[in-house]
Amino acid sequence: MQKKELNDEENIIDIIEHLRPFLIADGGDIEFVKYEDNIVYIKMSGACVNCHMLDLTLKEGIESAIKSEVPNVKEVININ
Predict the structure, then answer these.
(1) Which residues contact 21 (CB under 8 A, 6 or more apart)?
(2) Per-residue pLDDT tens for 19-76?
(3) Among 46, 47, 11, 50, which Cα is nearest to 32's?
(4) In the chain, which ranges are E strands?
(5) I want to staple 48 with a disulfide (CB 3.0 to 4.6 A). Which of 29, 35, 38, 44 is the partner?
(6) Domain harbouring 41, CATH code
(7) The pTM is what?
(8) Is residue 20 domain-resident?
(9) CA atoms of 54 and 12, how far apart (whole Å)
């Protein structure tokens, strides 16, 4: 059986779902909001909101993981 090819948004959601347990383990969470104009919009919650490592987690962790699998992504933005 051949694996179904995922579109960019489906891939992004899949990556986020794989990252969620790591954030939840530290008291935080991540929610996919939308993918528009090659920008991923997410919402960080829980302990992530006030974490001093949020920018590093966002750019070096989440954005890096998404861009490595979905090259069309320009940026990941956290919305409040």
Answers:
(1) none
(2) 999 999 999 999 999 999 999 999 999 999 888 999 999 999 999 999 999 999 999 9
(3) 11
(4) 28-36, 39-46, 75-78
(5) 44
(6) 3.30.300.130
(7) 0.89
(8) no
(9) 19
